């Protein structure tokens, strides 16, 4: 503790490490104090010092500082387990960047260390606070479209995989473990209390031979809901972020600014359709609904504050709240990741034995 506030430190001072230090040092200053950072790269430590942030000389020095109550790990994925266990054994609470580990076996070692040491170990699943996600979750939870039978969630870029450790499998590179871990976590959390029944996936290697530069997966839940998740990095025309289909209407979110709409049927009885010209023929089946049978609505955009993540962690440390991102949620997520890799390797639908949260 530092003057009655929670002492925090960050290991890894790259892009996400800088993001965390800014959040803790500025937005969370009423509850926490940023004690310092450590990065294995001396140049990053020098940048931190230039930014007015204390840089420890070593990881051991940081973990031995009694002022520090919690450590956030923002390093390449293959270092998460080693650093997390080291921090826990030094008596620190731990936040790991996502993905929490390279596989389920590593995750179990980290959970065992947290239980053995009696400390918090959780994961930074920050995109549970994305407003586009929360808006679609609201539509699903309130049955606004009637029974929903299809949800599509996608992120598409056109620059391939970044040319750093993220394109190296040995460091946990690839899009399944990068953006995929976010969208898959959203899919699993949005659909609760449904149980996941089966998974089919394909990986792509369009721009990179070392690791997946994209993937597509279809998740089927116990009530028949089909949830499609796509992450690709070679799309020069992007499709919508979200597309939801229900018996009574559809909803679309085009981008992170939550541009989109909800369209619902207003007159089920008016079924007559005038045939339209479609290519080299005519169609009545695909003729669009007339305006007198549908209504258009703005999206019920849900506002969110990513700072709620850290507020929850700090409240847990003070004994005031349960933790939001739990061990079993991460077990389920890592199991899904491994099932996606298995499905893609076998080109098969894989039955999923879901776990209770």
Keywords:
single chain, 357 residues, alpha/beta, nine-stranded mixed β-sheet, five-stranded parallel β-sheet
List the helices and strands and how they pair.
Elements: E1 6-11, H1 15-27, E2 32-38, H2 42-50, H3 59-63, E3 70-73, H4 80-89, E4 93-96, H5 104-117, E5 121-123, H6 131-141, E6 148-156, H7 179-190, E7 196-204, E8 214-221, E9 226-232, E10 242-246, E11 249-253, E12 260-265, E13 276-278, E14 281-283, E15 294-297, H8 307-317, H9 327-346, E16 350-351
Parallel strand pairs: 1-2, 1-3, 3-4, 4-5, 6-9
Antiparallel strand pairs: 6-10, 7-8, 7-16, 8-9, 10-11, 11-12, 12-15, 13-14
Structure, explained:
This protein is α/β, with parallel strands linked by helices and 357 residues long. Helix content is 29%, strand content 24%. The protein contains nine helices and 16 strands. Strands 15-12-11-10-6-9-8-7-16 form a nine-stranded mixed sheet. It has a five-stranded parallel sheet with strand order 2-1-3-4-5, with helices on both faces. The protein has a two-stranded antiparallel ribbon with strand order 13-14. Strand 8 (214-221) and strand 9 (226-232) form a beta hairpin. The protein is elongated, with a radius of gyration of 23 Å. The two termini are 32 Å apart. The mean pLDDT is 94.
């Amino acid at each position: 503790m530092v003057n009655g506030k929670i002492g925090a430190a960050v290991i890894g001072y790259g892009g996400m490490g800088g993001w965390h230090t800014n959040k803790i040092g500025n937005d969370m200053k009423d509850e926490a104090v940023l004690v310092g950072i450590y990065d294995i790269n001396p140049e990053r430590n020098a940048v931190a010092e230039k930014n007015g942030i204390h840089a420890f000389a070593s990881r051991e020095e940081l973990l031995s500082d009694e002022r520090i109550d919690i450590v956030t790990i923002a390093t390449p994925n293959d270092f998460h387990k080693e650093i997390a266990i080291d921090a826990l054994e030094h008596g620190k609470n731990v936040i790991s960047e996502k993905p929490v580990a390279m596989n389920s076996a590593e995750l179990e070692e980290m959970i065992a260390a947290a239980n053995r040491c009696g400390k918090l170990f959780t994961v930074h699943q920050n995109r549970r606070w994305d407003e586009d996600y929360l808006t679609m979750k609201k539509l699903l939870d309130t049955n606004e479209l009637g029974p929903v039978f299809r949800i599509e969630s996608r992120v598409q870029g056109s620059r391939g995989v970044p040319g750093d450790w993220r394109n190296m499998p040995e460091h946990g590179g690839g899009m399944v473990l990068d953006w995929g871990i976010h969208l898959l976590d959203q899919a699993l959390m949005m659909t609760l209390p449904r149980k996941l029944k089966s998974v089919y996936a394909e990986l792509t290697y369009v721009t990179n031979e070392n690791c997946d530069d994209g993937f597509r997966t279809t998740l089927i839940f116990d009530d028949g809901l089909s949830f499609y998740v796509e992450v690709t990095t070679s799309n020069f025309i992007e499709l919508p972020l979200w597309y939801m289909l229900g018996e009574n209407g559809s909803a679309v979110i085009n981008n992170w600014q939550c541009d989109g709409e909800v369209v619902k049927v207003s007159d089920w009885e008016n079924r007559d359709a005038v045939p339209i010209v479609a290519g080299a023929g005519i169609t009545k089946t695909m003729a669009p609904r007339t305006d007198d049978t549908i209504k258009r609505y703005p999206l019920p955009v849900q506002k969110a504050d990513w700072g709620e993540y850290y507020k929850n962690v700090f409240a847990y440390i003070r004994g005031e709240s349960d933790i939001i991102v739990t061990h079993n949620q991460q077990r389920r997520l890592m199991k899904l990741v491994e099932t996606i890799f298995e499905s893609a390797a076998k080109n098969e639908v894989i039955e999923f034995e879901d776990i209770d949260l």
